[in-house]
Amino acid sequence: MSKPHAIVIGAGFTGVAIAHDLALRGFEVTVVERGPIANGTSGRTHGLLHSGGRYAVKDQESAIECIEENTILRKIVPDVIEPNGGMFVAVEESDLEYREEFIAGCEACHIPIEEITPQEALRLEPHLNPKVITAFLVPDGTFDPLRLALAFAATAKSNGAVFHLFTDVVGMVLDGNGNVLGVKVWDRANDERYEIRGDIVVNATGAWVGQITKMAHGHVPITPTPGVMVAYGHRFVQRAINRLVRPSDGDIVLPQRRMAVVGTTSFSVDDVDYIPIIRDQVQMMLERGTKLIPELGTAKVRGIYMATRPLIGSSGPGRSISRTFKAYDHKDLDNIDGLVTITGGKATTCRAMAEKTVDIVCEKLGISAPCTTKEVPLISYRRFYVD
Amino acid sequence: MLSREQQGLNWLLQWFDPRGRSIGGLAFILNRITALGLVLYLYLHLYYLRQLTMGPQVWNAFIDSAENSPWIGIGELFVIAGGLIHGLNGLRIALNSFNIAVPYQKQLFYGLFTLALIGIAFFAVHMFGA
Amino acid sequence: MSDEKWTVTFIIHRQKGPDSQPHFDEFTIEIHPEEFVLDGVEYIWAYKDRSLVFRHACHHTTCGACGMRVNGVEKLACMTKIADVTQDGGKIKLEPLRNFPIVGDLVVDLGPLYRKMHEVHAPEVIPLCASPWEGEGIKPPQETPKREDGEEYIRLPDCIECGLCVSACPTAASDAEYLGPAVLAAIHIQGIDENPDLLALADSREGVWRCHSAYECSAVCPSNVDPAWRIMDLRKQIIARRLKFKK
Known about the structure:
heterotrimer, B: 3 helical TM bundles of succinate and fumarate reductases, C: alpha+beta, five-stranded mixed beta sheet, 9 helices, 29% helix
């Protein structure tokens, strides 16, 4: 019997992790991506390998996913991670109101934390606001967005997955009953159009899942929620600095190469292909960021960018929607066979998202193959280009 | 990282096109142009020296015609210019190759190029002045 | 900050597939002068021409995907402000990097660079002490803070493998086998004393002796690698070895 053929739409974190998982479970895998690897939300992530501390109070499902996946990613793809940890700091008396909840939340989610003195915090991070009242060390990390995606893609490719980059999905190949048989694509680098058929199509297009499901006359509840990030040209900190507050705007400063990146905001949009930079939000990042790192404003701005989170659900303001993920079989959702959609989640949880999605794919196709991505180390991201 | 076949004549353009180049790149271009000029001069030099083998009359006639032609003087000044620019820039590159003054390669170029210009002016005045 | 937008004409290199004839297309858009060239390219793709292909990922100079030539000079489009390369009513010419195979429009295949970086096993993460502090050139930091567990912090290296240096290098233009600035810098960072295989590569025909000192690599490097300095330092180290100053 020949291998089952899965078509994955999207080569962001979710898409490449799914391709990797599918390839390990014996699928023939074709990935179709309209741009290069990780050009959408994935590339433009903050780069925070979440310990889960940020969600430990209000969104424990997501927090538990984060701490589990954080541990796994450190093991399977150490090459793209700065495992320097993170710190939650209280800089105003009002921040302390959150302290008890934070400790209880982290304990409930099994996130190891350690409270340290302000002196100790300032010794570890000399650029920190000297008004720091208390600080917690958490197992956060920082990752290189493109290279994390490339490492999954390289490993998938070495296991036989085929990548069609700069190739848009322009339509679905449907049978008489509206079930999905494959995709119609447009290779923009060579201006060629053709069809790819497979046993299952996986829609891993994040904030763009709605555009793909529409082509199959299906639907999925999604709230695209962009946020701004500002990169300053000086590495003020060596670990992820979080404000000890409920998740809010501009409360994280991350080291990234020779930079410090401040984020982020949260608002809703309709068109996700191009999000203009909102100047007021950039100013707010500076003001909020300065509360954590007073010297922030002395460094030159090196980059400003907007990334669109794909939050699941269709109502409520962005901050109130869970950061967890969900995989949908459109057979259950819209009575359309041959199409599975995955969305929501965080970069940190991309491997778990892939596991869940491929579990559904395997169940649909009657294949019994266990997931092994927790154990299999990824190969170097450079191998994506080294055949 | 492209082969000669893939590059076509692009490499030649990249060697001599000054657009978008920094000081280091401009010095690179000047070094190539002066080197080609000096090589051309070397061959012309050898070609005319060949007349020495044809006897004293031939050589004297050539020297007479050369002394009366303004082009020879201008040509000589070009040789001097080429030699000074190439030689002094060569000094800069040689120093840099021992990792001396690499962060100051631009200033070194400005200084040595100015020195070359002064030298060229000196010889121009000496040869054509009054 | 003023909200006034500029009218800017982007003149963009177009080519479908490696073998077709290239041409230029013009797109005139309204854009804020404080926005970046990459924002303009993405806007053109979103609203003017969906067939445009370009590389990008992080939009903040950590990935190195968006290298291209802006008005003839190699730049990361994500950190190049509109106001720094044109004026209101002006033009911006965008071309793909040189010395790499064309994939389409503004996209080149950086595979050859990645392959060479792989060959010299350039490290993906490095100890903080191996990377200099800001504003101090390429000197290592005076004092590297230790983590609470006594171990050193590690960070991603400066080189983001964007290919700008290879595109700007006139030697790379005429010699496909030349290791090139990024790769030689990766050798230098690891040290030839510790890595005999790298010493052999650096001291080969296609190694440090092939460089012709145009210094364009360091002029265009967006990430403080300073490959030219590193190549010259490798030369010094190799000469010292030959003269037996060093064992």
